[in-house]
Design brief:
Keywords: Methyltransferase, Transferase. This is DNA methyltransferase. InterPro entries: PG_1098_Fer (IPR054168), RNA_cap_Gua-N2-MeTrfase (IPR019012), SAM-dependent_MTases_sf (IPR029063), Thump-like (IPR041497). Helix 11 links the parallel strand 4 and strand 5. By secondary structure, the chain is of the alpha/beta class. The strands form 2 sheets. It has a 9-stranded mixed beta sheet, with helices on both faces. A 7-stranded mixed beta sheet has the order 11-12-10-13-16-15-14. The chain has 17 helices and 16 strands. Helix 1 crosses helix 3. It has 3 domains: about 70 residues, Orthogonal Bundle (Arc Repressor Mutant, subunit A); about 220 residues, 3-Layer(aba) Sandwich (Rossmann fold), CATH 3.40.50.150; about 120 residues.
């Protein structure tokens, strides 16, 4: 499988890769030997990769897929996170001696990775660096062609490309025949679009259905890593896998939740026949990582509201990052950081400490004033402010409605949080951002 690019197409891509793709589509001169649709895909793909996959963008010879595949592929951050996780899982399985050997022998002790849903190959390319052997499986032939070309361009010559359907190959026991050795880790990223291109989120609506494949996957490998939609309820997802999940990773970058990663462990699934095995949850937002133990048998423990009296005076307000919001572990934040939830479902926490918390995993604000929604209170609270950054949490108005009501422009140094305290009292909190 080879990618053939004419000299005219290669020259066009090199000359115009910084240009606006839409303008090029309308104005570019057609010439013999120029595959314009392909060239436009390459220019658009490289422009996306500059921010999403900078290491790929710096590498000459990479061929990019059409827009949808670029939209769906992992970012460099999330792909590298999976590679680090894969290294930890397989190194731990190999033991301390083999972990030392990994450092000395280029990760050779980590054995074989099997990626059952290779796609564009970004995740596979990063994880493959941690393994001596890698098998990439993808049912779409054009993506296999791209992957084979790009793995070579990236110097990953130990990656074997296989065009086939993962479910069929699992049923026919083909995986054990094509893998160079027993898989140490299986990775699977079910397609989250239906036959009409619409988005799907429920596990059973994705392709393949990893719930139906769980037992077979764990027969083949001691660890299985599954990439799922961040829209899923992670607690329900853990329950659906009935004790097989050992770790949950809620991964965000730039404070935007990107994916939910599950780690299934063969030994973990055998500890209990019920859904009560302990699970480690990792809330990741760039360099911030907060982890905690989740007990599926006590599902209310990590959601419990303390309803403690609010500290007085309220000096600082904290907004947890996107992964912590998704995890819903607000009682944990109260305990770890000595802060208090301002109200039910507010997702905001406050303290009366003299100094802000150093390294809080989210945004911190110094509180300047707090008041109700009465005209006089609002007028006093907004004195001197012509514009503000507004956020609403458990509040009856949207940001746009509140901005219109308060007659404030957008931006500036003032931050306004509108929320509801215990007792259904609506309040505005005026803040300034604390330095990171």
């Amino acid at each position: 499988m080879a990618m053939l690019i004419t000299p005219q197409t290669a020259r066009f891509i090199a000359e115009h890769r910084l240009d606006n793709v839409r303008d090029l589509a309308l104005k570019a001169k057609r010439e013999d030997g120029l595959d314009l649709p392909f060239a436009l895909d390459q220019i658009a793909g490289w422009q996306t990769a500059r921010t999403k996959l900078p290491q790929w963008a710096e590498q000459s010879g990479i061929i990019y897929p059409p827009h949808l595949s670029m939209e769906q592929c992992s970012s460099q951050f999330t792909a590298q996170y999976k590679a680090d996780l894969a290294r930890r899982l397989t190194s731990a399985a190999n033991g301390a001696a083999n972990s030392a050997a990994n450092s000395a022998a280029g990760k050779a002790a980590n054995g074989c990775l099997v990626d059952l849903t290779g796609g564009f190959g970004v995740d596979c390319s990063y994880m493959a660096r941690e393994f001596a052997q890698t098998v990439y499986i993808e049912r779409q032939e054009h993506l296999c062609v791209l992957a084979e070309h790009n793995m070579q361009a990236l110097g990953l010559r130990h990656v074997r490309i296989v065009c086939g359907d993962a479910v069929t190959m699992l049923a026919d026991d083909q995986i054990t025949r094509i893998a160079p050795s027993q898989p140490a880790l299986i990775f699977i990223d079910p397609a989250r679009r239906d036959e009409h291109g619409g988005r799907t989120y429920a596990i059973e609506d994705c392709t393949p259905d990893v719930l139906a494949l769980k037992d077979r996957l764990l027969e083949l490998a001691p660890h299985v890593m599954i990439k799922l939609s961040p829209m899923l309820d992670w607690r329900k997802t853990v329950a659906d896998f009935r004790g097989a999940v050992s770790e949950v990773h809620i991964v965000s970058t730039g404070n935007e939740c990107k994916e939910l990663l599950l780690v299934l462990e063969r030994r973990h699934s055998r500890r209990t026949s019920d859904n009560d095995a302990p699970v480690r949850v990792y809330c990741v937002n760039d360099n911030d990582i907060v982890d905690f133990a989740y007990d599926p048998a006590n599902t209310s423990s990590d959601r419990a509201l303390g309803f403690a009296p609010l500290p007085q005076p309220i000096r600082y307000l904290y907004e947890p990052n996107a992964s912590l919001m998704k995890a819903g572990c607000f009682a944990l934040l109260e305990e770890r950081y000595g802060i208090t939830q301002i109200g039910p479902n507010s997702h905001l926490l406050v303290s009366a400490a003299d100094q802000p918390i150093s390294g809080f995993p989210g945004r911190a604000f110094a509180v300047e004033a707090m008041g109700g929604m009465g005209k006089k209170e609002v007028k006093t609270l907004l004195q001197g402010a012509a514009k503000a950054n507004i956020a609403v949490r458990n509040f009856p108005l949207t940001v746009a409605q509140l901005r219109k009501k308060l007659k404030l422009g957008d931006g500036g140094d003032v931050y306004l949080f509108a929320t509801t305290l215990a007792g259904n009292k609506h309040v505005l909190i005026r803040c300034t951002r604390c330095a990171a």
